[in-house]
Amino acid sequence: MKGIFQKLTNVVSVYLALVSIVGSSLFLTQYLLTFHSINWSLAFTFVAAILLLNHYTILLPPSGNSLSMDSAIYLAVLFVFGLHMTLSLLIVTSIIYALYNKNVVWWKHLFNFAIYSIMIIGAYEVFILSGELSGMLTFFNVASYMFSLVVYFSLNVLLIGVFFLLSASENLYQIVQGMLKETISSYFITLGLSLILVLLMQQQVILGMLLFLSVAVVLSVSFKQYFELYQEVSQKADIDHLTELYNHGYFKSLLEGEIKTAKATGQPLSIGLIDLDDFKKYNDQHGHLQGDRLLKHFGAELKRNAKDVFTAARYGGEEFALLMPGKTEREAYHIINHLRKEVNDHYFEGVEVLPHGCLSFSAGVIQYNRDMYDSSEVLEKADQAMYFSKTKGKNNVCIYDANHVLSKTFYNHKEMELLEQQLKIFLSKDVYTYKHSKRVHEYAIEFSNHLNLNANDQKTLVMGALIHDIGKLEIPREIINKKGKLTKDEWEMVQKHVTWGREIVSTNRQLHDLLPLVELHHERFDGKGYPYGLSGKELPKLVRMLTIIDSFDAMTTERPYQKTKSISEAMDELEKCAGTQFDPELVHEFIKVISENPALNENPIQITI
Fold first, then answer.
1. Which residues pair with 511 in a beta bridge?
2. CA–CA gap between residue 113 and residue 24 (Å, rounded)
C-alpha cells in the first residue's frame, strides 16, 4: 500500500476525500438519530476485545494476508445491541488507533474510519429492511443475518476495489476477482465467527466474549505457527539447494510479476542471462564435486553483488538469470559487465585450465518492451544475446539486437520446408485455409519490407503468417467446410483454434517466437477480440500487423460464411475499422502496400504439392 499511496493521482485524492466525507456524514447522522444511553463499562470491554484481536491477527497462506476478527465483534454487537453501540465502539477504537499509530497520516485513519462506517451502517439498514430488529438469532431469521453480512463484505470489496481501480491499470473486474481470490476465505471465516459470537453473547455477554477471545487467540497462535511452517517449506521449494539462489520456476514467476508492473507503470525492466564459459571442460578436468563447488562459489558471488540491484537465480546447469527492475538495458549491461570483471579477478581453484585462465562467463541482456508477448519471448531473446556473446569469443556481455543474432534466428529453407509440410496437411482437409495461409504469407513479406522490419522480426512475421491457422487442424471437417451459418457451439469451437494452434506450435522450441502470432491473431485493437481481450499496445506490433493482413485476405477471398469484398471495399473496411478493430497507423501503412503493388491485388498464389 505504501508504494501506491506515494503515487496518488488527483482522481484518487478526490475519491479518498469523497468516501471520507460520505462515511463521516453517515456516521454523524446515524449516531445522532439512534442516540441513546449505553453501558460504557460494557462498551469498553468490547473496545479492549477489538484492540486485542487487532494484535492477535490470523496469518493466511500463501500471501501472508492478516485476518483481524474485529469485524466479527462489530457485527455481533450490531445484531445484539444495535447501531448506536456499534458506532460508539468504532469512534473510540478509531481514536485510539490514531493516537497509537502517529506515524500514519491522519487522512488514512479518516478513510479507514469512513469505510467501516459505510459498511456497518449499510449492513444495519439491510438488516432493518429485512424486517428484523436486534434480538435472538434463530433458524427462522438466520437469512436476514446472512444477507446483512454479505452486504457488509460487498461494500468492503467495492470501496477498496474502486480505490485500486483508480490507482492501477487493471479493470474493476480483475481487481475484484483478485481481491476475492485473496480474501474470500477470510470473509467466510469472519461471517461464521460473527454468528457464533452472536449466539454466545445472547446467552451470556461477558462469558461469551471471553470464550470467543480465547478461541481467537488460540487460532492466531496456531495459524502463525502454521504460516511460519508454510513459509519454510515454500522457501525450500523456491531455492536451488546447491547455490542457495532462487530456482528456475520461482524466477519465472518473479519475472511475470515484474512484467505486469512494468506494463502498468512504464518503468524499465531488464533481464540478464549468464552462462559460465567452458564449464564442461572444468567438470571433466576436476570432477563433478569440484564443479559443484565452483557453481556454489559463483552463486555466492552473485548474492554478494546483488544487494538491491538485482535478483539472481540459477536458471539451469551452469546458467544463471538476473532480474533488474528499474534498470535500462545500458544500466544492466554495466552492472553485469562489472560483475564479469570481478569474477575474472577472483581466483578459484583449478580455473587455470580454462581458456581464459580464470573464471569467466558470457551474458546476454535485454530490456522488456510492450511489443514483447510474454516472459518466454523475453527470455528467448536474452538467450539469443547470450549466444551471440559466445560467438564473439566468450567472456563478453551483449545487449540484444535483432541484427546481431541472424546466425541463429534468421529463417532458412529447412525451417520453411518444415512449416510448408505441416501446412500441406490442410490440403487433405481444407484447401481454403491452405490457400489463405499462403496468401497471408505473401502479404507479410511485402508488409515487412515496406516497414523495414529488422531481419528477426521479418522472420517471425513471415513464418507466423504461414502457420497462424494451424490450430484449425483440430476442427472437424464438417464444421470447417460448412456452407451455412455456424451455430453458437460451432463458432465457439472455431474460436478455440488459436489455443489449439498454440499447443501444436509450442511442442517445437525452435518455433516459440511464432506463438504470439498463432494465439493472438484474432485479438482486436479495442480489446473486443479473443481469446484474452487484449487491447492497444498490449498486443505485440507483429500481431497487430497480422490481424490486418489476415482480415484483408479473409474479406477479399471467397469463403463459406462471408461474402467476398472487392479490393477497394476491403481497404474501405480497414479504414472504417481503424482504431477499433485494427491499429490505425498500421492500417494506413498496409493500404499503401496494397495500393502501390498491383500484383498483390490478384492474390498470385500457386499451389505446389
1. none
2. 8
Q: Residue 456 has which C-alpha cell?
A: 528477426
Q: How far is CA 393 from CA 333, 359, 362, in A?
A: 17, 14, 9
Identify whether the C-beta of residue 55 lies closer than 8 Å to the C-beta of residue 174: no
Mean pLDDT over 593-601 rounds to 70
Quick: pLDDT tens for 254-285.
999 899 888 878 889 999 999 999 999 999 99
Asked if the model's pLDDT at residue 335 lies above 70, the reply is yes
**321: β partners:** 273, 313
| pLDDT above 50 (res 606) | no
467-to-157, 185, 227, 346, 543 alpha-carbon distances in Å: 44, 45, 48, 50, 13
DSSP string, 509-552: GGGGGGHHHHHHTT--TTS--SSS---GGGS-HHHHHHHHHHHH
Give dist(CA 234, CA 439) in Å, integer.
51
Tell me the C-alpha distance between 22 and 81, whole Å: 24
In the chain, the percentage of residues whose pLDDT exceeds 90 is 32
566: exposed, middle or buried (Cβ count in 10 Å: 0-12, 13-18, 19+): exposed
Report pTM.
Answer: 0.49
Are the beta carbons of 452 and 561 closer than 8 angstroms?
A: no
Query: DSSP string of 39-105?
Result: -HHHHHHHHHHHHHHHHS-EEETTTTEEE-THHHHHHHHHHHH-HHHHHHHHHHHHHHHHHH-TTS-
Tens digits of residue pLDDT in 564-583: 788 888 899 999 999 999 99
3-state SS class at 576: helix
283 CB neighbour count, 10 Å cutoff: 17
Q: What is the pLDDT of residue 5?
A: 41
| Residue partners of 233: CB distance under 8 A and separation at least 6 | none
